[in-house]
Amino acid sequence: MRAMVLDAWVRPLQSTTVADPAPGPDQVLIRVSACAVCRTDLHVMDGELTEPKLPLILGHEIVGRVTALGTNVARFAIGDRVGVPWLGWTCGECQFCRTGRENLCADARFTGYQIDGGYAEYTVADQRFCFAIPDAYTDAEAAPLLCAGLIGYRSLRMAGDARRLGLYGFGAAAHIIAQVARWEGRQIYAFTSPGDSEAQSFARGLGAIWAGGSDQPSPEPLDAAIIFAPVGPLVPAALRSTERGGTVVCAGIHMSPIPSFPYDILWGERVVRSVANLTRRDGEEFLRLAPQVPVRTRPLSYPLDQANQALDDLRAGRLQGAAVLTT
Ligand SMILES: [Zn+2]
Ligand SMILES: [Zn+2]
User: Fold this and answer.
1) Alpha-carbon span 53 to 68, nearest angstrom
2) Pairing relation of β-strands 87-89 and 62-69?
3) Cross-strand bridge partners of residue 301
4) For 201-242, how does the pLDDT look when each residue is reduced to its tens digit (9 = 90+)?
5) 321 Cα: distance to centroid of ligand 2 (angstroms)
6) Which residues of 213-252 are buried (b: 16+ CB within 10 A; e: fewer)?
7) Distance 275 CA to ligand 2 centre (A)
8) 151 and 145 Cβ atoms separated by less than 8 Å
9) Helix (H), strand (E), coil (C) string for 75-121
10) Which ligand gives the minimal distance to the CA of 106?
11) Is the pTM higher than 0.85?
């Protein structure tokens, strides 16, 4: 099959031909039709996430059809459309797995990181970690739901019932979760790179009542903020704009160092927390909710062999929506 392969850190992906994967007993073989591109893929390529398998096929927002079944597979049949997220396997036995926090399992394995992912014509995935995809979406529309949507959804839940919600970094995740937040009756304040008027008008088009640069204070105190951009100085910036008792949620898997800040911007029972990975329950809840809103994604399609271009465009902040590789 054709695949885009990461051979070593800080190198472009190589377009190459590799052996078709074969499903293990609990796995399904999937003909990939769409795989969204995530900022986490850049963190893996750049060596900021330090435990990838190498060589590696990136990609953890995969949509495709089942073409073969492992011997234990009963949840899916050949021809079913499935989605594969970042969480690829957990131990099922540790204290985290047993208490609904499988996202924190120390032995968890992740798609497109420790397991080959979806920047390829085929992939295999553990059936227990795959999702059915709602009929309302095409393959390319559904792919960004699987990480941008799921992690965004978990982050939104961690923001509690905040009415005035700040979103720092208005890319794939924010463009999805802003729609859910609006549907829930919240007010969105969108913070983009200073001077990025295109991203600001994109945010306003999705219902943000205010959009401006992240160097500006919020025009109203925020009840919570979600930081999607991997930029540590946004943590004190968001705290300064957040009301007493409010939470600042760091949604990314990697962030540049957070500068020190005075205690008085945390005082008043403000909370800073991260969101790590996802649980299968997050996925099931969000994929039920998305068609009700309805969440509309904006997939920006690239052919599989243009993966490096898609990654460059994401890195440069040129995307209003979610890059999706199609095969
Ligand atoms: Zn992701
Ligand atoms: Zn576990």
Assistant:
1) 24
2) unpaired
3) 324
4) 999 999 999 999 999 999 999 999 999 999 999 999 999 999
5) 34
6) ebeeebeeebbbbbbbbbbebbbbbbbbbbeeebbbbbbb
7) 17
8) no
9) CCCCCCEEEECCEEECCCCCCCHHHCCHHHCCCCEEECCCECCCCEC
10) 2
11) yes
